[in-house]
Write a structure and sequence with these properties.
Largest sheet: 5 strands, mixed
Strand order of the largest sheet: 2-1-4-5-3
Number of helices: 1
Distance between the termini: 25 Å
Order of helices and strands: EEHEEE
Shape: elongated
Mean pLDDT: 87
Length: 82
Amino acid sequence: MMIQNIERIEFCFGMLESWESVSALSVITLDGKNIPEDIIEAIAENYILELGGIYGQKGVGTPEQYESLKIFLQDKTVEIEH
């Protein structure tokens, strides 16, 4: 599988007491040439770019585990939320 040039990756995760607190989570950002090759390989090997969407059921449990991954490509953005 050939991957377009990845321009940026954003990842955030944490435990939420309410969905209003999502914006308070820290975001880890990797830009362009600073993205390690093993991360790019893992994205390709695990077909991550084909998984976009929302997984899990919001509002189940307190606190609720939250994860968000955004991969910015040249012509699109893939978002995965759990």
